[in-house]
C-alpha cells in the first residue's frame, strides 16, 4: 500500500504554545484515515499541514512524494489543486448560488469553458445527491444539503485527496449516516485518498480504514477500527467510552 502523505517528526507552535511535538504519521494512499482526539488536540492542524496552509516549525511534510514544508507559495497553490478541502462549516459564499460556489475551483484552476463548467458542476451535484439546486442560494438549503454542496465543491476538480474537517458535526444521526456513506462513495469514485477529522465515533467506525488518535499534539494510537477498539491504551479507551481524558502520563 502506497503512502499519499507523510508527517515526519513534525513540531508546530502557535506563538509560544507547542501544539504538536515530534509527530510522525503516514497517510495511506487510497484509504480513508480518520483523525480523532479531544478538542484542541491538533486535528485541524494536521489538515492544514497536509495542504501547506501551515508550515511546521521543524520536521518534514511530504505529499505525493514531494517535501512541501519548504515549498514556495506558487508551488503550494499547484499542490492544493490536487487536494480538495471540505471545511467544517462548508464555507460557501452566501451571495453566490450553489452552482457558482461549486464552480469556483474550476474557474480558478482550469481553463474550461462556461458550458463545460456548468455541465461538470451539475454532474458533481448529482453525484452528491443534490440534483437541480444550482440556482438556489446556501440560505435556502438545509444544513445537510449545505454540507453536500461543500463536498461537491471539494471534489469537483477530481482531486487525488480530499480533506474533511468535521464533516458531520452538529447534524442529526440520519444525515450523519448519509454524509458518511457519501464520503466513502466519493473516495471510491475518485479512486483517491481521504483524511477525515471527526469526533463522531459512529461515523468513524463506518468509514475508517485507519484511525490516528491524537492526544496533546502526539499520535497515541494508530490502526484499523478493530485495532483501535481493542487498544489497551487507557487514553484511547477513555476517549472511545466518551469520558474526559484526565492527566494520564504518556
Ligand atoms: N491560529 C492559531 N493561533 C493560536 N493558537 C491556535 C491557532 N490555531 C490553533 N491553535 C491552537 O492549537 C491547538 C490545536 O488546534 P487544532 O484546531 O488543530 O485542534 P483540534 O484538535 O482540531 O480542535 P477542535 O476539535 O476544537 O477543532 C489548540 O489548542 C488551538 O487553540
From TrEMBL:
GO terms for molecular function: ATP binding; ATP hydrolysis activity. Residues 5-241 form the ABC transporter domain. The keyword ATP-binding applies. This is ABC transporter ATP-binding protein. Keywords: ATP-binding, Nucleotide-binding, Transport. It comes from the Bacteria. PANTHER family: PROTEIN TRIGALACTOSYLDIACYLGLYCEROL 3, CHLOROPLASTIC.
Amino acid at each position: 500500500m502506497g503512502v499519499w502523505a507523510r508527517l515526519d517528526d513534525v513540531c508546530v507552535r502557535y506563538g509560544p504554545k507547542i501544539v504538536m511535538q515530534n509527530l510522525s504519521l503516514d497517510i495511506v494512499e487510497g484509504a480513508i484515515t480518520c483523525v480523532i482526539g479531544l478538542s484542541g488536540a491538533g486535528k485541524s492542524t494536521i489538515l492544514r499541514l497536509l495542504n501547506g496552509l501551515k508550515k511546521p516549525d521543524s520536521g518534514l511534510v511530504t505529499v505525493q512524494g514531494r517535501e512541501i514544508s519548504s515549498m514556495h507559495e506558487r508551488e503550494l497553490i499547484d499542490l492544493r489543486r490536487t487536494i480538495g478541502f471540505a471545511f467544517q462549516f462548508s464555507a460557501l459564499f452566501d451571495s453566490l448560488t450553489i452552482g457558482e460556489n461549486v464552480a469556483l475551483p474550476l474557474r480558478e484552476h482550469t481553463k474550461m469553458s462556461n458550458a463545460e463548467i456548468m455541465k461538470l458542476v451539475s454532474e458533481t451535484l448529482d453525484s452528491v445527491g443534490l440534483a437541480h439546486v444550482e440556482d438556489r442560494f446556501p440560505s435556502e438549503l438545509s444544513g445537510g444539503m449545505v454540507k453536500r454542496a461543500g463536498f461537491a465543491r471539494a471534489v469537483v476538480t477530481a482531486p487525488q485527496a480530499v480533506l474533511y474537517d468535521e464533516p458531520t458535526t452538529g447534524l442529526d444521526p440520519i444525515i450523519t449516516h448519509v454524509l458518511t456513506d457519501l464520503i466513502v462513495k466519493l473516495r471510491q469514485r475518485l479512486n483517491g485518498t481521504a483524511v477525515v477529522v471527526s469526533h463522531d465515533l459512529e461515523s468513524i467506525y463506518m468509514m475508517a480504514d485507519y484511525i490516528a488518535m491524537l492526544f496533546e499534539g502526539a499520535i497515541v494510537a494508530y490502526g484499523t477500527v478493530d485495532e483501535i477498539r481493542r487498544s489497551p491504551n487507557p487514553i484511547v479507551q477513555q476517549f472511545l467510552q466518551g469520558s474526559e481524558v484526565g492527566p494520564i502520563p504518556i
